Amino acid sequence: MATGRTHRPATRSRGIPEATVARLPLYLRALTALSERSVPTVSSEELAAAAGVNSAKLRKDFSYLGSYGTRGVGYDVEYLVYQISRELGLTQDWPVVIVGIGNLGAALANYGGFASRGFRVAALIDADPAMAGTPVAGMPVQHTDDLEKIISDNGVSIGVISTPAGAAQQVCERLVAAGVTSILNFAPTVLSVPDGVDVRKVDLSIELQILAFHEQRKAGEEAPDDGVVPPVAAKQQRKGPDGDVPAVMPA
Amino acid sequence: MATGRTHRPATRSRGIPEATVARLPLYLRALTALSERSVPTVSSEELAAAAGVNSAKLRKDFSYLGSYGTRGVGYDVEYLVYQISRELGLTQDWPVVIVGIGNLGAALANYGGFASRGFRVAALIDADPAMAGTPVAGMPVQHTDDLEKIISDNGVSIGVISTPAGAAQQVCERLVAAGVTSILNFAPTVLSVPDGVDVRKVDLSIELQILAFHEQRKAGEEAPDDGVVPPVAAKQQRKGPDGDVPAVMPA
DNA sequence: CTGTGTGAATGCATTCACAGCG
DNA sequence: CGCTGTGAATGCATTCACACAG
């Protein structure tokens, strides 16, 4: 997951649980694929398999949106595509700006998955004036100085931050001050934002670290200890050798 | 957040809840920053703020690792860095391969956050033979034909997939067959893998869609309806106009 | 007297299992 | 009769609040 928001209590939104909202895009993707193959209807079982969840969860999720299925039959693909799109707000066009056009920012600018889902890259912004010369993904790279003007001229409410960590908080503040209320953060920093602004973060190295955790366990516990924690010990035992603590973290 | 695994029941790992594991990298990042500023100790309150969580959660999380704090004082920064690194398996070196060297794959290859946390990019792999000519991030791009050999020669157990969606499942199967047991998937597809293989996915457009959902709500509900669902209606009312369903999804 | 560590309480999310619609 | 929609049951995660270690 690279999922995660900062701030804001888990107020469920218009009755739809966060966990469900996070899965709607998955369903939408699976449905879009079915739609392209002209499949007219689909059962919860089939769709769940395509989306990688179990069918009970899917039916529960859909029940929050309304009664869109037909008992004994399944769901109408086109209709569901429309309903979920509408629920997610994808029936409108969302202009976004990408700030920080390094390797990652450029990759994002070129990423087709945005445009195909109602997100339009309205501008690319970078602090390096030298970048203004060469266009990225067919667009000019504009200078950070004009950030506020770009935001308001284009009515942007969603910003993507792919700057180095050090610049992210300041960029974030300028975006918010200029009117952005949703931020997708790729910089490895915790952003602090005022109430009413949503932040989601994607941290590439965090995902790998989580994998490493599980990977380590696979290697270690070939002989199952039955999962039970040793009665005492284990709680007392550790607690600083108090001298040999190595500076293990690489750089 | 782009978090999420496919398959495998939520068996908590060695007594540490998944939700806690997912936060350990955040704590580690905050601690590393403190360590670099030579801060010797930190309270749960301070560290929580730096990591963007609340202090009760942080203390509970740490309690799963052991008793590493000192009451009335706080936590020893260096010691915690070491313990969390060890818990996450970052005290060892993890060779990874990146398959699919497009814009995103290249950005990942250049991403500094991997190397600095014990992940070593052992090889870049792409299906396009033309890519073999020009190195990316100072490394040669190798051809998919050699995938199996590269995996076993380098003892790779973690693979990153940044191919187009269409190629992902097949690449995944070859990685798994060659011995990879953890996969970080950037392709917008559900991967199916055998038991014992972990998959985490990062889907850029999903994150934006979740933001759009909340953004839409902000725009709509300026006059608060008190959050209560209208008594009846709302459940019955929708259900297909059954004719005017537009093909709304943009291409 | 400060701040950790943790039982107990609360609140979500997932899963079960089945009534009942089409 | 098949498959949706949903109450009820279960299982996690978060939060509270406080005993007690240093």
TrEMBL record, chains A, B:
Residues 89-190 form the CoA-binding domain. It is found in: Cytoplasm. Keywords: Cytoplasm, DNA-binding, NAD, Repressor, Transcription, Transcription regulation. Transmembrane segments: none annotated. Gene3D superfamilies: NAD(P)-binding Rossmann-like Domain, Winged helix-like DNA-binding domain superfamily/Winged helix DNA-binding domain. Pfam families: CoA_binding, Put_DNA-bind_N. Residues 219-251 are annotated as: Disordered. NAD(+) binds at residues 100-105. Residues 26-65 bind DNA. The keyword Cytoplasm applies. Belongs to the transcriptional regulatory Rex family. Modulates transcription in response to changes in cellular NADH/NAD(+) redox state. Homodimer. This is Redox-sensing transcriptional repressor Rex. It comes from Streptomyces longisporoflavus.
